[in-house]
Amino acid sequence: MTVWSVEACSKGLALTGSRDTTARLWSLEQMYPLRIFVGHKQDVTCARFHPKITYIGTGSYDKAVRLWSITDGASVRVFSDHVSPVLSIAFSPCGKYLASGGKS
């Protein structure tokens, strides 16, 4: 599996975005995926934790940014305003905003 993005948090979790079109939430202690987030149509290029670790954000070559619930893995919101692949995302420190960047 080709992994494009990795982020760890203070709760012993890691988040990956990969070529197989998924994001995965990992337990760092047991090294297995706790949840697999499915919904993007192309590579997940970036994945980030929300500051409160209640959500994750993902960006993809499918030109979409998604907000996901960590609790149940549901896709909470899809932003599809990009005209080219999404290469980077970041939450604001307060968690109120999610910024994204790409080739456009």
Automatic annotation (TrEMBL):
One Pfam assignment: WD40
Record Gene3D superfamilies: YVTN repeat-like/Quinoprotein amine dehydrogenase (2.130.10.10)
SMART domains, A to Z: WD40
WD repeat ranges, renumbered to this chain: 37-78, 79-104
This protein's UniProt keywords: WD repeat
Protein name: TAF5-like RNA polymerase II p300/CBP-associated factor-associated factor 65 kDa subunit 5L
